Amino acid sequence: MAVRVDRGPLLSMLLFIFIIFIFCQNSCDALTAPQFLKVPMDQIGVSGGVVSFVCQATGDPKPQVFWNKKGKKVNSQRIETIEFDEGAGAVLRIQPLRAPRDENAYECVAKNTEGEITKTSTLSIIREDLLPFGFPSIDMGPQLKVVERTRTATMLCAASGIPDPEISWFKDFLPVEPALSQGRIKQLRSGALQIERSEETDQGKYECVASNAQGVRYSSPANLYVRVRRVPPRFTILPSSHEIMPGGSVNITCVAVGSPMPYVKWMLNSEDLTPEDEMPVGRNVLELNGVRESANYTCVAMSSLGIIEAVAQVIVKSLPRAPGTPIVTETTPTSVTITWDSGNPDPVSYYIIQYRARSPDSKFETVDSITTTRYSIGGLYPNTEYEIRVSAVNTIGQGPPSNKVEARTGEQAPASPPRNIQARIISQNAVMVRWDEPEEPNGMIKGYRVYYTMDPSQPMSNWQIHNVQDSTITTIHSLVPSETYTIRVLAFTSVGDGPFSDPVHVKVRPGVPGQPGKFSVGKVTDTSVELTWDPAYSKEPVKVYELIYKSPDLGVQEKRNFEPRTAYVVEGLRANTEYTFSLAAVSNKGIGAFTNEISQRTAQASMCERDRIIQCVKPVLTENQWMLEVEHVCPVLSVCVTHRGLLWYPDSALERLEAAGAERPTSVFPSQSSLSERKREHN
Ligand SMILES: *[C@@H]1O[C@H](CO)[C@@H](O)[C@H](O)[C@H]1NC(C)=O
Ligand SMILES: *[C@@H]1O[C@H](CO)[C@@H](O)[C@H](O)[C@H]1NC(C)=O
């Protein structure tokens, strides 16, 4: 609202007065001189007893209240002034009362900048033995009492006198005012003081005061103690640890109790996460969102009685890190033991080992589900370089592999014998022996042992030994001329001896051919076996080869001689029969050593066309049965052969035999005519 001055000076003057008036409503008249709120009363006390004068004033500014005696401040050991209401109230307490010394007028003065007021009260004192009838007496005064905080305490008081005395209470020399306690403190009809929901401030020295027209009487004081239960903080819900996915959220609850109740806050390392002025009591929930890193959060509960802490681990899951480079702790010919450092602060479910032989085309082999940080990889090849690496697996997956470690397995004795042993006569009594390295040396070959004997039936320990280093050829001297020796060779590493080669034989006579080499079986049918070999070494030309073969089943031994060649097919053999073969070369100087025997079983005769009826006899016993001798009978004919020999067959079987294309029994009979006759009879 704009003020317009041009309406004239009178209007302006009225407006000014109005504004001043409005302004002074609030503050101009706020200053007031003191006025008594509580006016002290004249008192009649009993000698040796107590009296209190209570004086309280109000005003603005707040007045100061004090007590004077004859215009001077009271000052005595027995006369005490107890201030209250910030000095706007004062109790004058005299104890013990002395008559007549204390019988005076006492002035309560209330004073502020606006003025000063005084009220005078007089004190009379009566000796105990001169008390008038009806002077108040305390029949039962309050007793010392202990109350638990928040419980109800009752201070008892009973008094008598004529007229009935009024009872009031003092606490710590100040009047108790139930009216100001919002109903928490009551004075009961009996005079007792009842304090509900007691507080620590209720603790103090209580006096019950009985007064009537005759005078005033104080009870003995009684202390009320308010006991506060003191319980140091403790957690009722410990913060729990959590594993969460990257960027995840989690709420962590922490609850602590105690008396007094503790404050609860969260910290990350030394950083406060709960603002100091918003610290909740008892319970604090930490809300974490978008968590990227693992961290340890600390819940702190504190009261005047102590500080406690609990840590919640928040683990953000991620692929595990690569473990430390494995360390080889032990190697054997077939195993490598490694240990490694986890390299992961967070839990690892298990580890995976990958290893491979160090060669260009080898693939990694995997060992899964290892829960320790030490492992022996078994089933390895001896004397082989391996590379090994480890990776860790957790609930998210497999982490990157560690650096590789390289390890060589230990050596072992050779696993296979030297190959292609050859022996040649080089003089009357010397043989040169040569061979090839074993296929599986299993380490560094340190040398070879050549065993030889004239009597191969002797145990190996009785044979003679000739050791060879760094060579696959050697010469054995001092042999007995014209004798046949058997020779076997083995290889050894630093760890031990390998197996013996097959024996070779050599006849110590110059000019006699050596043993044919690589004597072995080629194509096999049901009636033939092909044999192959390398030509026998010989100074004199080989004239002929001699082959011996036999069948342990049949108990026969056959011999064949043929022109020099490197293959031969032995024919006319029986089907499904074991044969052994042995070959020697012959020169003008004589026959050389035979090879070792090799065994071969001829093939199964194929179906029915191979069934050969050797003898077919119409027996005299019955008209419709034939007696056959067969070599082999096709199973499809359901003709059971348990042994070779003469068997009885029904006619129907023979017919089926013929129908299946079996050779007719025409040529192998002891008597052609008798067969024909019999056949005719049959037909
Ligand atoms: C955490 O508590 C807040 C508030 O109560 C709620 O909105 C939120 O969904 C809770 N988060 C989790 C991960 O429980
Ligand atoms: C959390 O505390 C644990 C136990 O003391 C400790 O192993 C881990 O490394 C700590 N984690 C972080 C992220 O500090």
TrEMBL record:
It is an enzyme of class 3 (hydrolase). Its main location: membrane. It is a single-pass type I membrane protein. One of its GO terms (cellular component) is M band. GO terms for molecular function: protein tyrosine phosphatase activity. CDD domains: FN3, IgI_2_RPTP_IIa_LAR_like, IgI_3_RPTP_IIa_LAR_like. One of its GO terms (biological process) is sarcomere organization. Keywords: Disulfide bond, Glycoprotein, Hydrolase, Immunoglobulin domain, Membrane, Protein phosphatase, Receptor, Repeat, Signal, Transmembrane, Transmembrane helix. Residues 1-30 form the signal peptide. SUPFAM superfamilies: Fibronectin type III (SSF49265), Immunoglobulin (SSF48726). Residues 34-124, 136-219, 233-315 form the Ig-like domain. PROSITE patterns: FN3, IG_LIKE. It comes from the Eukaryota. It is found in: Membrane. Residues 397-417, 663-683 are annotated as: Disordered. Residues 322-412, 417-511, 515-605 form the Fibronectin type-III domain. It catalyses: O-phospho-L-tyrosyl-[protein] + H2O = L-tyrosyl-[protein] + phosphate. Its EC number is 3.1.3.48. InterPro entries: FN3_dom (IPR003961), FN3_sf (IPR036116), Ig-like_dom (IPR007110), Ig-like_dom_sf (IPR036179), Ig-like_fold (IPR013783), Ig_I-set (IPR013098), Ig_sub (IPR003599), Ig_sub2 (IPR003598). Belongs to the protein-tyrosine phosphatase family. Receptor class 2A subfamily. This is protein-tyrosine-phosphatase.
